[in-house]
Design brief:
mainly alpha; 10 helices; 2 strands
Length: about 250
Amino acid sequence: MTNGLHYNFMSLILQTLQGYATPSTVYQEKVAALAAALKEENAQIGVPRKSEQTALLWNAVEACNTLYTHLRQIVRGYAGIPLLEQHVVATQLKAVFDQFPLNVKWKMGQRMGSLTKLMGQLQAEPAQSWLCEMGLEKVVEEMAARHREAQRALLDRNREVSKRTPAGLQKARKVTDAAYDECVEVVQALYTTQPDEELLQLIQSCNRQIDHALTEMAGRKTADCRVVADEAEALRASAEGTEDATESKEVQ
């Protein structure tokens, strides 16, 4: 059963149960427990599965990659032409790039770790002086700024993810299902001991909701809805003493 269908089905069942007035404290407690469980399930459905920091992270990483690629190409270009004035410093800078390689196709963690090491070298002496001689210091400053943005976004995203309850929605659904089962048991017990027409109508209304949910599922199996097979008729017969009460069965 999909999350949306499950929540809608349980909501309709809860509304039906809440519409029945009875002095039974057990009934009231079980219905209240179902309401609390369903409230938590609704809260879990609303938990975003994606972090807003992801887009910020990738934008910063891509900007950093672009700057890195162009900077390396410039340095290699000057290092490959001995006639140029900047050939010597470019060769020295190229050695720094070669010492701390970076592949933009690497995974995020490996890529950012390598870039952190490279930035540490480029922002320190003597590489900083070499960059100034080639007029490239602004490029490195911009690359460092984008790298810091990426690191902040990554940390913020990790904090968001760490606050989420693992499989929170699945756990909430199980609690709702358990509360639903207990409500069914109480309704059965009430009708067996003190049957009345209003309670019978409640049972029939719940069964109609069950039939509707099963129809929407188009024959897919589910273990989420445990109900009494032909419950209304069986309980009516039991109340009249014409046959034994039907036990709860799991509708597949």
